[in-house]
Prior knowledge:
This protein is an all-alpha fold and 102 residues long. The protein is 80% helix and 0% strand. The chain starts with 7 loop residues before the first helix and ends with a helix. The chain crosses the membrane at residues 7-28, 34-54, 61-77.
Amino acid sequence: MKRRRNYLPTLLLTIIFWLLFGYIVLFTAPASSLLIFLFYLTLTLSLSLTLSLLLANSRRGFLLAFGLVVFLFFKQVDLLNVLNILLVLAIIISVEIYSSKR
């Protein structure tokens, strides 16, 4: 018997996190490190929930969102280069392969 999932709570959380992310982007200045941390946290959560809904897989949604946020952070601190891109992709693919084998 297949279990039917209820996507409404996830959809509501996704909308809330996107609204919170929009508020942070539009109405706050990145003056403190706390606001930068909140920016990355809300972006990670909103992307993770959105991609989890689109891909119908929470683990892959989180890994993809985490990878995108790491790339964005590397771009912010001028560390984005081919080697770092390959290393992050290798880590994400390794985690995906390891967790899919279990």
